[in-house]
Amino acid sequence: MLPYLAKCVAAIMPSSPPIARQAFLHGAIAILPLSLAVAPWGLLAGSMAIEANLSAWQGQGLSAIVFAGAAQLVAIGMLKGGASLLSILLTTLLLTSQHLLYGLSMRPVLSNQPLRWRLGLGFLLTDEFFALTSHYDQQQFNRWYALGVGLTFYVAWNLFTLAGIVLGQNIPHLDQLGLDFSIVATFVALIAPLVRNLPTVVCVAVSLFCSVLFSYWHWETALVAAGLLGMAAGFVCQKFTGGRP
C-alpha cells in the first residue's frame, strides 16, 4: 500500500499542474486544525508503545502501517495486559469497522479514479479524512485536495507518534497525564457539525448514555455495544419520523 501512496506523492513534484498543487495545499491547510488536535493522542500512542515494551521501530511501525489511533491505543493496552493475538485482532476489527462503511459511502465518488489513487486514498481513509471529503459528489471531488488532507494528517500522526516515543523513553507514565482526552475532543469536533436532524440527535444521545452506563458497569464491550444501540435507535427514529428534521 505504501508504494502506491509514494506514487501519488511523487506526482506532487514541480511537474504537477499549478491547480493540482493549489488543491493539495488547500487540503493540507483544511486538515491542520484536526492534525494539531490529535497531537496528545499521537504522543500517547508513542509513549504507550514504549511502556508496552515495544521497540521504537515497532511503535513507529504501528502508526506508519496501521494508521488508526483508537485501534492502536486499544491494541497496545491489550498487548500490555497480556491479551491473546486473536482477541486483539477481533477487537481492533470491531473498532475500525466503520471504515468499511466509509469506503462504501465514498465508492461512487472514487470509482472513476485510477487504481493507484483508489488504493492510496483508501490507505489514508480516517474519520478526519471522511469528515472533510465525504460531502463532495463525483463532479466536485478533487483527488489532489483529498491527498492533501490525508497525507498531511498521516505525516502529522507519525511525527506526533515519534515525539511520543522519544518522550516515553525519557518521561515515564505519560498515559497518566490525561492526554486521552484529546480523543473525546477530536470526535466531538467531528460529530457536532453532523448533528442536524432528530435521528442523528437520538443516535448520539443514546450512544453517549449507553457508553457511560456500560462503562460504569465495567462492560468490556461498552463502546461497541453503545455504538450499535445508538445506530439502531437512530434508524428506528428515522423510520418513525420519515426522515423529517
TrEMBL record:
One of its GO terms (cellular component) is plasma membrane. InterPro entries: Brnchd-chn_aa_trnsp_permease. The keyword Transport applies. Pfam families: AzlC (PF03591). It is a multi-pass membrane protein. The keyword ATP-binding does not apply. It is found in: Cell membrane. Its main location: membrane. GO terms for biological process: L-valine transmembrane transport. Keywords: Cell membrane, Membrane, Transmembrane, Transmembrane helix, Transport. The chain crosses the membrane at residues 23-50, 62-79, 85-103, 144-167, 216-237. Belongs to the AzlC family. PANTHER family: INNER MEMBRANE PROTEIN YGAZ. This is Branched-chain amino acid ABC transporter permease. It comes from Pseudomonas putida.
